[in-house]
Amino acid sequence: MIYEDFASAQSFFLWSTFAVALVMGAVVNKTNFCTMGAVSDWVNMGDTGRLRAWVLAIAVGVLGVMALEAAGMVNVTSTFPPYRQTTLPWLEYVLGGGLFGIGMSLASGCGNKTLIRIGGGNLKSIMVLLVIALIAYFMINPFPGSDKTLYSTLFYPWTNPTAVALSTTQDLGAMFFSDNVATGRMVMGGIVGVLLLAWVFKSADFRGNFDNILGGLVVGLAVLAAWYVTSNIAVNADGEMMSLQTYVQEWDMYAPADAVKPAAAGPLASQSFTFINPMGQTLGYAASGFDRTLLTFGIMALAGVIAGSLLWSLISRSFRIEWFASAGDFVNHLIGAILMGFGGVLAMGCTIGQGITGFSTLALGSILTFIAIVIGSAATMKVQYFLMMREG
User: Fold this and answer.
1) Quick check: 359 and 130 in contact, CB under 8 A?
2) CA nearest neighbour of 62 among 179, 169, 172
């Protein structure tokens, strides 16, 4: 996908993201694919159907990345965010994942589900989105008139020193096969992907549930599609094929005088779906008066999922306006949104961003975050059930 000018390449980068997200949003709404619901079904009813759908999406991502990376068709090492970085801030992954898991249980869904609910008419989720966006924005961006962020003030001094410096990138292939990383990534991707698929399809109930299979398959393929598109868009700069990120880094040398330069090059790197940091990006974009230089993959993904969910809600006539049932319901959603905002940025992703996109790279941090999210969510549901039984 080579373009003769940056504007055309960036336009395809953004609108292809919206298109894939639109399909994913519609299918997630149709199939009720939900990571929080997956944990809830498992913990409260012993039903693993939606959990297997989530794991199917992970398996599709892992096996797809393994094949595409081996063929040289995707770049999942120099990405935004950097899943395969050479440091392992394990405490941030575990703490952030745990906070996110608690938060999504209180707020009735993860970041992706929040967007799906908005598309279906849930006004509660608009509040959740705004709170997450505000926290996510200031976790990364300094307060007005200051150089301090929420992250630098509340977390960096005590979480960053625990980070472990690695001799390789943190993906399992590089860590276990440092002498032959390419082979290692194929071996580990094949082993992990096949084991996950075997567990998923071991259940006869799951094999007979069309919606769960469709939901997991489409979400996994959407993650792969984003990896492929964002890894393969290039600009022909005087005969040299350059990625969008590299082109912006060399802007003064290649860009015409009337071209509009993006605010940052990082968000133009290869990437796939995640939803917490993009909520903060969307807030910044809106606050700037919709400055086109701030338009990113994440913002288009967020808009696409909402639009896809809305489309399916209208087609299926399931669109319903929903508000808080009580003051307690409001407080739960507020606390949940706060925890998801902090946890999602601290862990560098959510149940989709780390639980599927990051996991597809076999980054150890993504796997730790996935486990921490599940444990945090499951523990919260156990506590909620205990309190409900005691009150009853």
Assistant:
1) no
2) 172
Listed in sequence order, the residues at least 6 apart from 134 whose beta carbon sits closer than 8 Å to its beta carbon are 280, 283, 341
**CA-CA-CA-CA torsion for 32, 104, 350, 352, nearest 10 degrees?**
-10
Neighbours of 324 (CB within 10 A): 15
Could you tell me the CA-to-CA distances from 127 to 77, 130, 227, 245, 267 in Å, in that order? 35, 5, 30, 34, 26
333/121 Cα distance (integer angstroms):
16
Cβ proximity of 175 and 168 under 8 Å: yes
- The amino acid at residue 179 is D
The Cβ of residue 72 has, within 10 Å, a number of other Cβ atoms equal to 9
CA distances from 8 to 70, 220, 268 (A): 29, 27, 14
> CA-CA distance, 1 to 110, in Å (whole number)?
33
Q: Using alpha carbons, select from 379, 296, 237 the residue that is nearest to residue 15.
A: 296
Domain boundaries, the chain: 2-391
| Tally of CB atoms within 10 A around 269 | 19
Q: What does the mean pLDDT of the chain come to? A: 96
The helix (run of H) or strand (run of E) holding residue 25 is helix 6-31
3-state secondary structure (DSSP) of residue 3: strand
Give the residue from 19, 84, 109 showing the smallest Cα distance to 322. Answer: 109
Check residue 316 and report its DSSP letter. Answer: T
Tokens matching residue 202: 């071991």
Strand pairing report for 234-237 and 164-165 = unpaired
pLDDT > 90: what percent of the chain?
A: 93
Residue 392: pLDDT band with limits 50, 70, 90: low
Q: pLDDT tens digits, residue range 245-292?
A: 999 999 988 888 888 999 999 999 999 999 999 999 999 999 999 999
Look up residue 18 and give its two tokens: 């919206």
